[in-house]
Amino acid sequence: MNSRYDFGDIDVAQTVYIRKVALATLPRDIREQLPEGQDVYAVHDAEGERLALVQDRSLAFTLARQNEMMPVSVH
Hints:
It comes from Paracoccus gahaiensis. This is DUF1150 family protein. By secondary structure, the chain is α+β, with helices and mostly antiparallel strands. The chain has one domain. It contains 2 helices and 4 strands. The longest helix is centred in the C-terminal third of the chain and has 10 residues, at 57-66. The chain starts with 14 loop residues before the first strand and ends with a strand.
């Protein structure tokens, strides 16, 4: 589903979204660098652009906060 959501007064420029990534959607060269069964999480901006990939959910949240962004989880 790719529909826009009205966030009201929230500064969406500072909001990033954390979600688990299906490994099959990643390029082969990236998949080959990951250990078998490794989970990967993506940090996306409000427009949906992927900003980062990390191997740990808590690291994704930490990375966002260290860059003065407000992370939220997406399922």
